[in-house]
Design a protein that fits this description.
Layout (H helix, E strand, L loop, with lengths): L1 E10 L3 E2 L12 E4 L6 E11 L7 E11 L2 E4 L3 E5 L12 E3 L1 E4 L2 E14 L4 E5 L6 E4 L7 E7 L7 E9 L1
Parallel strand pairs: 2-13
Antiparallel strand pairs: 1-7, 1-14, 3-8, 3-13, 4-11, 4-12, 4-14, 5-10, 5-13, 6-9
Length: 167
């Protein structure tokens, strides 16, 4: 069982409606299984604001995707083992915030709404043991989640992380 930290740095999200193509570098991250049987458990999401304006309400959503990313690149994200003595498995999760085909957030599979003012604000969600958010595989509706801004806000720059485990 390998535990990872997926970070995103100085991303200014664009607010997207559900089932709309996200655009490269304008969402926090996507997390996709590395194969059809990979199980991932998400245990924490954190975002800290870096906006230059005093009014940057950011409606951030962690949701399953109804269209998954293809040819994903890291962009402003990094994924690293939490245990410095650990060994990565042969197949790792796919992470990034840029792709040739970007994801579309599902209209019905929102998992978390984490709203905050990105002008110096922060938001953190963490799961109790056994209550982590699970995803399996790498297909639509179950194998990929993304962290992106929802319509109705004016999101500002932010950085943050997602802690996850490959099971």
């Amino acid at each position: 069982m390998a535990r990872y930290s997926l970070t995103f740095t100085s991303v200014t999200p664009t607010a997207f409606a559900d089932t709309t193509n996200l655009t490269s570098s304008n969402y926090g991250f996507l997390l996709q299984g590395g194969n059809t049987t990979m199980q991932i458990k998400i245990s924490e999401i954190f975002a800290g604001g870096e906006a230059a304006s005093s009014s940057s309400p950011s409606i951030m959503v962690l949701a399953r995707d109804s269209t998954v990313g293809a040819t994903v690149t890291a962009g402003a994200t990094r994924s690293a083992l939490l245990d410095a003595t650990g060994t990565a498995p042969g197949t790792t999760a796919v992470t990034g915030n840029s792709a040739t085909t970007n994801p579309q957030r599902s209209a019905t599979l929102h998992l978390l709404h984490l709203s905050f003012n990105a002008y110096g604000g922060l938001v953190r969600w963490f799961a109790r043991p056994g209550e982590e958010i699970n995803q399996i595989g790498n297909a639509v509706n179950a194998g990929e989640t993304s962290f992106s801004a929802y319509t109705g806000g004016t999101p500002g720059a932010m950085s943050g992380h997602c802690l996850y485990e490959l099971v």
